[in-house]
Amino acid sequence: MVRAWPGHDAGSSTGGECTLDKPFGSNVSSVLAQADFVNVASAAFDSGQTVPQMLIEACRRYGDRPAATHLDCTLSYAEIDRQSADFAAWLRHGIGLEAGDRVAIMLPNLLQYPVALLGVLRADLVAVLANPMYT
């Protein structure tokens, strides 16, 4: 069975056949062979890491790289790591929340969002997510 993906003509001479088992054509193995990436989620799962541990490790591994951009402001992974650690410390020690307490995060998609979410998770708290655009 031939199935075209959106924007891809399965019968075109440029794209070739597009099947369910080879959605990107026959050159996918050569593309993957050239790719320089690590499946961080699989590695974390295999080592028994939690989601917060995986995110913190990624922040430290890619510290100097840009992590998120909004308008003309960019945060690096290291900045997210530092700011979320500060926020986690404030949640636990500044206002006295205890492990398992719930923290509502009601933010639109801004740079503060990943900082707040990772801060809540690394403080061993439960994030209750609410986007004000949809409430």
Describe the overall structure.
By secondary structure, the chain is of the alpha+beta class. It has two domains: 36 residues, no CATH class; 82 residues, Rossmann fold, CATH 3.40.50.980. It is built from five helices and four strands, in the order αααββαβαβ. The strands form two sheets. It has a two-stranded antiparallel ribbon. Strands 3-4 form a two-stranded parallel ribbon. β1 and β2 form a beta hairpin. α3 crosses α4. It is globular.
List keywords for this structure.
alpha+beta; 2 domains
Number of domains: 2
Poorly predicted ranges: 1-20
Cα radius of gyration in angstroms? 20 Å
Oligomer: single chain
Query: Numbering strands along the chain, what is their spatial order in the largest sheet?
Result: 1-2
Helix content: 40-55%
Short structural summary:
This protein has 135 residues and is an alpha+beta fold. It has 5 helices and 4 strands.
Topology of this protein?
Blueprint lengths: L27 H7 L5 H8 L3 H11 L4 E5 L2 E4 H18 L7 E5 L5 H11 L3 E5 L5
Parallel strand pairs: 3-4
Antiparallel strand pairs: 1-2
